[in-house]
Amino acid sequence: MKEIEGEITTPRGFKAAGVHCGIKKNRLDLALIYSEIPAISFGMFTTNRVKAAPVELSIQRIRKRSIQAIVINSGIANACTGKKGLEDADKMTEIVAERLNIEKEKVLVASTGKIGEFLPLSNIEEGIKQAVSELSSKGGEKVAEAILTTDTTIKQVVVETDIPARGKGKVMLAGIAKGSGMISPNLATMLCFITTDVCITPDALEEALKRAVNKSFNQISVDGDMSTNDSVIILANGLARNKKIKTWQKKKKLKIEDENFSHFCKALDYLCISLAKMVARDGEGATKLIEIRVKGGAFPKEVRRIARAVANSPLVKAAIGGASPNWGRIMSALGSAHTCVDTQRVDVYFDKLLVVRGGEAASFEKEKLKEILKRDEVKITIDLHRGSWETVFWGCDLTEKYVKINKRYV
Amino acid sequence: MKEIEGEITTPRGFKAAGVHCGIKKNRLDLALIYSEIPAISFGMFTTNRVKAAPVELSIQRIRKRSIQAIVINSGIANACTGKKGLEDADKMTEIVAERLNIEKEKVLVASTGKIGEFLPLSNIEEGIKQAVSELSSKGGEKVAEAILTTDTTIKQVVVETDIPARGKGKVMLAGIAKGSGMISPNLATMLCFITTDVCITPDALEEALKRAVNKSFNQISVDGDMSTNDSVIILANGLARNKKIKTWQKKKKLKIEDENFSHFCKALDYLCISLAKMVARDGEGATKLIEIRVKGGAFPKEVRRIARAVANSPLVKAAIGGASPNWGRIMSALGSAHTCVDTQRVDVYFDKLLVVRGGEAASFEKEKLKEILKRDEVKITIDLHRGSWETVFWGCDLTEKYVKINKRYV
User: Fold this and answer.
1) The model's pTM
2) ipTM of the complex as predicted
């Protein structure tokens, strides 16, 4: 497995286009991803009770597991828009389907931007027409750009797996994401679209994506807020024509004993973790990526709870933003995570520097700690010393800029 | 019941003193509260797994329900200090007990300030000597000041209840609190001390404080972080010599059919809610008090979860700080609160202005909303329209100043 240069259109049989249709000022705001043949697909969506109209629609559509196109707009989230919002989302897929001459049931839709406003459908219709006419295997970069809001960088990763394709080359995977930037301060949406030419069964694809998302997008937090539009969607069109990756049930448990499934999972994990870290690092106003590793846990739940509590603590985040060596805040945050850990056995490391030993200050060089805190990637390890469960979580620092961005008037 | 001028020493038989002993620079940092006779007492403490040494000690001591003095220092939290920390906390109570000629088991201790540092015991010993010599019924203001860290104001409320004292006058209640200010950026502690001259049984006192704390201190949040030192302690010395307020068990349920218990609860609720709101309003960097009322809930848990999720959302807090009418953020935050509410039935009001009707934008005057958002107290009402449970929660806005305070180098 290796990361390679490329775009969302690098896997075989995918085309894409990104255009400006006038929802945002002077920036690309409409994207189309298209597979030459219907792709096996799976999606994971926000667990927020308030789901945007495109999320509601895509959840229904993806049940059939066969998707050929995804249309995405940025600028307006089409959330809290009721019946009209759902009709608009459906209309978007209808226009795409007509132009591409496919069934609308094979088209997904995603939106990101301001909550509570309606989409300008005539602009979108014009945009879709243009996007269809511009579809190409070189359109990936523009799509990566068109899905952004106030993200400061595009987030794109392409991986060549170790799975041989029929003929020559390997199975490929490509993904793009957007993070918690905002076109206007109503939203922090995470969107991720993944294309692959792997030949795989729907069950195996679902299992692989669930595993990868639990290790990546479910392990990041910019501010603990969950959006109405979060979506991760994967399309696998099978055009690499590799030996089909399968799973089967054995005694009610999903069994996978396929070397290629492992290869695929490894590549998908890498891709999702890379994108997730890019999203965390590019959190609103953030200047640093914070990696929190919690190990020595007695249960999976406790390591996850502690990692999340520390990553979400505004006091910890602000301290790291200010390169302030406040290890007490980490202790306080981990103690508040509703677990049964014995805090007098806890060790805390910044990078490899032991700062807390058995719940109390260890003797360490303060200058060394300051140097670590000034890096643009700060790694914290918390060892609970009571078991063997481990997790890694990524967050970012809290800065004045985060507040400034989010208090702006609409 | 009415609020009156006064201090923590206004109830009969209480004396207090606040002095400077050198933990902080040029500010009062040591306080002593003393009752002429042992007082029935009850305390509620942080549920953080990391408990400061004074909290551990006070939890043990208060089990006997008979307390005569509380010693408090600000500047250093005596948290994450291991065995030595516990010895230091015990030593503080020993010095107080010796000087006051009482048993050390009747002395509680509380600390607030930086985590992970040891107390300067010789300074504290000198401070306690001075405080004992200065104990007076006029010392309350100085105590209210000595427990502060970076709080910008003292927080003090005195209430005259409707319960007649023997002889003349009424039963009195007084309370002081400190909020999430910091002497140095390692801590956000909530401390509250309440004195009363009511004559009451331990069970009735416990019941009354639990009820009051659930309506007040458990309903506020500055940043969602839970401290290692949070404590609410009440001392009731009985010197008003009112007819003793009692409770009794009936079929395993606590029964209270005493009019004076209701009077006492009413006064204690008022006092705790007033102090809690002062703490929220004086949150670090805060410029506004935000009141969130959630009504129409099917269960008590769901209204509390939603109120807390909205009050803790950095996006909602920043928007209100910037007087930005982003109702979408409230919808997103309430949707993420892990409840089963039907978001398409939700109404949201800012003050009395209906902004969201049935989960979508209502038609309202934008100018009116902007005017409401500019006030220094913003009231939000969320109606779930599915039951009759209701709750009120208080928080504050998120400002650049919060980040600035918390990224400061130690």
Assistant:
1) 0.81
2) 0.73
